[in-house]
Amino acid sequence: MIQRQHAAGTASDVDLDAINRLVAESQKTESRASMDASRVRAIREREKISQSQLAGIINMSANSVQKWERGVSAPTGAALRILEVIERKGLNAIL
């Protein structure tokens, strides 16, 4: 969209560059914001909880946690953010 505005003369070169930088930074953050199977399992094992218990704590299904730990899928959204908090600060930080 910004490219069309730039082409039409309603957005400056500075605006275009600024937005492109913001988009690039956002994409870097999103790519870093993934959690692989080994990290999910390590968090759960460190906290000494079962897959079902972790699922209940983060309001997800046990099946989702199993898929994450097998690498079939990865946590996203709120589940990812909660797992990151648990990883950094421990389970007590969210209980």
Annotation keywords:
single chain; mainly alpha
Outline the structure in words:
There is one protein chain. With 95 residues, the protein is an all-alpha fold. The protein has helices at residues 2-8, 13-32, 37-46, 51-57, 62-70, 77-89. The protein has two domains: 2-32; 37-93, lambda repressor-like DNA-binding domains (434 Repressor (Amino-terminal Domain)). The protein is 69% helix and 0% strand. The chain starts with a helix and ends in a 6-residue tail after the last helix. The mean pLDDT is 87.
CATH H-level superfamily title of the largest domain = lambda repressor-like DNA-binding domains
Task: Give the overall pLDDT as a whole number.
Answer: 87
| The first-level CATH class name of the largest domain | Mainly Alpha
Number of strands: 0
- The CATH architecture of the largest domain: Orthogonal Bundle
- Main pleated sheet: none
Overall number of structural domains: 2
- What global shape is seen? elongated
Q: So how many helices?
A: 6
List the helices and strands and how they pair.
Elements (H helix, E strand, L loop, with lengths): L1 H7 L4 H20 L4 H10 L4 H7 L4 H9 L6 H13 L6
Helix pairs in contact: 3-5, 4-5
